[in-house]
Design goal:
heterodimer; A: about 400 residues; alpha+beta; 2 domains; six-stranded mixed barrel; two-stranded antiparallel sheet; 13 helices; about 20% strand; elongated; B: about 260 residues; mainly beta; outer membrane lipoprotein receptor (LolB), chain A; 13-stranded antiparallel sheet; 4 helices; globular
Amino acid sequence: MLLTLAWRNIWRNHRRTILTVSALTAGIAAIVFLDSYRESTFKQMIGVVTTGLVGNLQVHGAGYQDNPDISTVIPNPAQTMAKLQKALPGAHLEERVVGYGLGGSARDSDAVMILGIDPAQQDARSRLFKVVAGMGLGSAPAHRAVVGAGLASRLGLRPGSELVLLGEAADRSMANDRYMVSGIAKTGSGDLDDSAVFLQLKDAQSFFALGGAIHEILVRLEDPGAASAGPLAAARAALDSKSLEVLSWSQMLPELKGMIQQKRNGQYGMDFVVFLIVALGVLNTMSMSTFERTREFGVMASLGTRRRRILGLVVTESLLQGLIGLVIGVALAAAVLHAVGSIDFGSMAGQDIGGVRIPSTVTLSLQARAIGDAFSTAFFIALVGALWPAYKASRLAPAEATRVV
Amino acid sequence: MRSLVTFAALIVALPALGAGPLPSCPSGAGKPDVAALVERTQHLLEGTSSVATMTMQIRGPTWSRHLKMKVWTKGRDYALVRVLEGSPRETGMMTLKRERQLWDYLPLAGRVMKLPSAMMGDSWMGSDFTNDDLVKGSSLVDDFTAKLTGAVQADGHQAWRIVLAPKPSSTVVWSRIELDLDRTTCLPVEQRFYDDEGKIARTLRYSDFRKIGARDFPTTFTVLPSEKGHSTTVTYDEIVFDVPIADETFSLQRLQRGR
């Protein structure tokens, strides 16, 4: 009844309603588009993190995150992996050895990060690197290495080249050995492209004199963008907290997390500006519309309509316009996002934020968070814009109001 | 017969190398010539050439290990270090310095690796000594401007304190070095190395002075870095100064053959 009445009322002056709805639509579309664009970028960056070097969660020997010493290890990986898999049934687990050293040849050398991985554990969820020349480690015999593209070009390495590694081992001796480059790879991170040497897990374990120990177990959740809190708690509960630590990607990359948070706060600022501008417009039209209907509200009041119902009617009229604006605004933003498709960062590409490379192109799509933001903004615009006129309409004295021409 | 030839070569070579006796110590002087003091210290520690065998004890908070090595030096430009005894994969490891460049021979890899010049200030073999220390990369005389700041008590010695500031042209990693010299003997007591932030990055102590030829030489060097629980001690088992060394010793081709 209230809804029908409100619906009929807003189309009595359709020109005004169309104008109000247009302003709302434009504001909402702007919020949804910019928010979606930003969240699409974040989603892609988080995807790079959780499917790449970092994963959703990591297990280390206790204290490794603060002081990544080569001798801080997970001493019995098989046992830890089993416990972890039981606690997180759908998750995918990968073992890692991580160390630092020098890589090079008689001609030149450079600082390198040495990553031991088990190719058999890399599945569809692992996007640690993409081989751009030669072969990966999958079918390679022992003593093969995959080298980051930046490092390879600086050291002049090609598939088939010889790579010499030098580094401090867990027993503090100087590890040194020779490997054959099987492939050149690109990762999601500029730092990594410039320094990474990937070895088979067993080769890395013997290089760093680790025995069967490893440094990290990576946990990749089924959904790369999944929240970490639940799985983090489950993993922590399953493992001995004295000898092992479990961290989420946002704890390991606080800069990235901070950057995302900061940009989201910026988004709230923009939402507020849109809210102010559009809400003032709505306030204006709703004031006009209630003023014009003073006599009508007077008649309603004298017929015994409760004040609360009149207030509700005006607010509902405004909310209805807000809803129309929201639906059209989201649809418009979705259409624009689809039409633009993807954004090329051009000169920005190749820069790193928090150790994660800014994706060179971002595929845009409508993001749930953006719709949520737009919904609350539209709701408050309609509510705030209507409250004062609605209040005034509901407080009209029936006798005087009916006399207004 | 062989030793006779060496002896003869030594007699002939000595004056040619300019290895004069160590300048005397101006003990008791009210205001000694600081440049002369620094030059005397460098000459005392390095000579014009040297061959030494030494033991290096490297200690960390929970571990300790030792290396035995032999070191050849010739002037400032040539040095060779060879690990005689260490963990199985380190034995036979060598570091060669030729002018401003460094190479490592890696015995397990059977290959030579050229070290980036930026690595001069990095740890040598995981010890608290840097590559620069080991191959005498920088020179107290040539790379620093010395200033005498006064007489102090250091480690129970009446000592001169000399502050060495790196010259703009030098590539030294330290922002400043303080050197304490015993006032009566002019022998080094302690050296402190300051980082960019003006904090002491490490302390080098000289002890166990023994008569080596004409000089009193500190046969124990101890480095204490700022990290707690770490230290490295080098003890000279044997050292001779100002001996002729064939250029061939410092050849890259020889290093590449692992000999």
